[in-house]
Amino acid sequence: MTDSAKNAALNGVAPLPHLGVIQVDGEDAAKFIHGQLTQDFSLLGMDAARLAAFCSPKGRMQASFIGLKRSAGVILLVCSRDILPATLKRITMFVMRAKARLRDASTEYTLYGLAGNAIQNIAGCAQSTWAKTDLGDISVVNLYPADGIARQLWIAPTGTPPPNGAPMDPALWAWSEVRSGVATLSAPVVEEFVPQMLNYESVGGVNFKKGCYPGQEVVARSQFRGTLKRRAFLVHCEAPLVAGDAVYVPSDSEQPVATVVQAAPAPGGGFDAIISGQIAAVNEGPLHAGAIDGGRLLLQALPYALLEDI
Length: 310
Description:
This protein is α+β, with helices and mostly antiparallel strands. The protein folds into two domains: about 5-180, 2-Layer Sandwich (Gyrase A, domain 2), CATH 3.30.1360; about 185-310, Elongation Factor Tu (Ef-tu), domain 3 (Beta Barrel). About 15% of the residues lie in helices and about 30% in strands. It has helices at about 5-10, 30-35, 85-90, 170-180, 215-225, 280-285, and strands at about 10-15, 20-25, 50-55, 60-70, 75-80, 100-105, 110-115, 130-135, 140, 150-155, 230-235, 245-250, 260-265, 270-280, 285-290, 295-300.
């Protein structure tokens, strides 16, 4: 399938049952979440969303979220369903005296991905990534595009009529998530990466000016002391790929140089994936999935500039 054909197919509305929602209620909701995640929620308004990570004390990502305000005292955190129960349990441990209550609200909301000609109008912010608007009970968030095609996250109370647009295969949406270059953490790769290993500082997922949060010192040190040796890359492979797959170079059959973070079948055949790997080894290559003689990974261009290059 040609690039133009792939882009033409990336239009419509896809249900997102693989995503869940943690709801945070209370007058301290924003303050509490601000102290737990890598992004600033204390200054979060009603016209924006946040990409953010929840880290261990060692700075390793335990979850990634798209966070947004539904009202002054209600914040929603959208994440992969397979890690939601454990993540909710971990974050709740830190509530203590904060006036905030957390719960799994996945059944209370319906989520869709919108792409191309199904995009909803966001007042004056059509091209602004992480811009958010409320259309009654519906919240719409602009996401990073995939191969130049605009994409949005649509979230509304369960029972709300679905967004207008032609149905889109969820597998095609999963491919668009990979092609956006913005990884969503899932169970196979929990606690594998500091945020910069997924390029989160370059896509709005880390605020280095905010106060402390679990793992903050490690994240800051990785950024400002030049200790970061791993990055996220886009790759294509003719063989199947899944999150957690190890990536090797022929010169070392024992130690993988990268890990598959997120993968999806490509419309033109094979698989596209986001990997996180050693910068030097990935650039030197060649890269193979699963073993030194496994499927060959071909590097693709990232769709955004890294912060160090901006």
